[in-house]
Fold each of these.
Amino acid sequence: MTQLITRHMTIEDIFTQFPQKGQKLAQEMTNFGLHCIGCSASTEETLEEGMYSHGMNDEAIEALLKKLNSVLAEETDLSTISLTPKAAKKFKQILDDEEKTGWALRFGEKSAGCKGLEYFLDFSNKVEENDVVFESEGIQIHVNKKSLDRLLGSVIDYIDGLKGAGFKISNPNVKSSCGCGSSHNY
């Protein structure tokens, strides 16, 4: 695997050069303890400097670089919308808890936040007239045709960690997101 992200790149450079993978890259950095998204230091500080300032060593830097470059190497299927196995398992558990076993997942966007749009996930018990239906991990995903061009290629994951738990969307079409990560734009 060719290394595309290096320790001498600034956080800003990483997101500028790889906007289509920005959400997944940001999640990996956060998982490693870097919360640089939206931080003014991230525009000037290299990845290496940022990790050193957070008390991390060369081994941790190399581990993060390996993870970030593996994200860049991941293939993105731009013809579908999918769930990770972990997200599917969690969604099925929620359906059982809500006594909605067999229902589908409704995925879309609404106006909100400082960047203009935010995702929503909801239950769906029937296909609407303007829906496109995807199947992933045994779950139907209902998406309104108006949002389809922006949402194709999205992967819905479930993250459970010390900094919180919830469904996280990786969308290769997003060009910018707010510092808090709740809204995005194209």
Amino acid sequence: MTQVKQTQTLGPVERLARRDGLIVLLAALLIAGLAAWYTLTGAGVAMSMDPVWTPGYALLNLLMWWVMMIAMMTPSAAPMLLLYVAVKRIGPEGHRTVWLSLLFLSGYLLAWAGFSLIATLFQWQIEIFDLSMGAMMPITSPVLGGAVLMLVGLYQFTGVKDACLTHCRSPGAFLADHNRPGAAGALRLGVLHGGYCLGCCWALMALLFVGGIMNLYWIAGLALYVLAEKTLPKMHKFSGVTGGILLASGAFLLISALT
């Protein structure tokens, strides 16, 4: 009865503070939602068929890639993020749960900023060598497109892919092994988790170059596939099927181009 009375006498701020998991989840959804909106509106990048790679244009493309990765990858990080919130809530740093959880999410997104930089550099090169249909368009070279498909297909069968996916699918074990106290520990943990997520998903993100960087069907499809691969119990078995389909598709493109 005493606990009920205490709960009833809590003000709105105190009641909200106790719902730190909800706060962090809503913050993550807001970030992903804003990123998705920015991507849907074209990410501020002009769809010119003959883009000029000035430093400003390069920076805009880097931002476009990072925002797109935030929109695509934040939902798949939700299980790990919510478990981190639960662990911090019951520990000695419970009073800083929301702050540390947002730092964890920031570290995760920073890891994808690294991928975005590499993707921007690759995009720059294929546009310079006239291997794509202008800004945001798919690769026009069947040889390069086939090579990308086969590379992604082969990666689906590698031990690196399997090991990274195991870490992403086992948030409890990951936190038990790598959780550290303090703000630096939260940021480090986020970067580390982002690194494992990058290890299991970077090749799939490369498919955007084949389907079209701003192709919303590819963006949504890849985001859903990544989420399923990391969360559904038997989805890891489907990775081999996906790899086989990608290998066959890539081989078909290469053979068609060389014959």
Amino acid sequence: MHASEILWTVVIGFVLVGSVGFFLSIYNSLIEMKNNIGRSWANIDVLLKQRHDELPKLVSVCEAYMQHERAVFDKLSEARAALAKAAGVAQRSDAENQITRAIGQFFAVAESYPELKANQSFAALQARISELENAIADRREFYNDTVTLFNTRLEQIPDSWIADGMNLQAAELFKIDESDRKDVAISFKMSA
């Protein structure tokens, strides 16, 4: 073999190894991102389960005080039932939005019961659920960031070529309900 043949063989070998390495790194990073989406959704699920477990405790503490507020309890129960039936990100997102609205209405009604607000169990549960709501919002943001990054990679070249070969599909964002974007009407009743 001549020196030029050896040089070309080495160059072609480096190009082939480099190309395979490049495509393997894209493949592995897409797999990692896909798994991160699953992990971030599982992190949301952990918090949702904790919130789901806390809600019956809150309802039981409040039922004695709020006997004539049955509609609030019913909305909360319906929202929890919708969550149990939900499958997929879109349905779970809708069910979670229903629970968030029901909790908001629940706490708004509870404001008109001073003896309930003074109850230590209620205060502790309200603080715990508020803490969970904040953590859920943080995890939803992380989930959506991960999904957006993944979906962007699926549209970029050469990642899109490899993603097509892997049959990867764009992931769904965790969206809020359109009614949650509206301004909240606040009215103060003046007593004479």
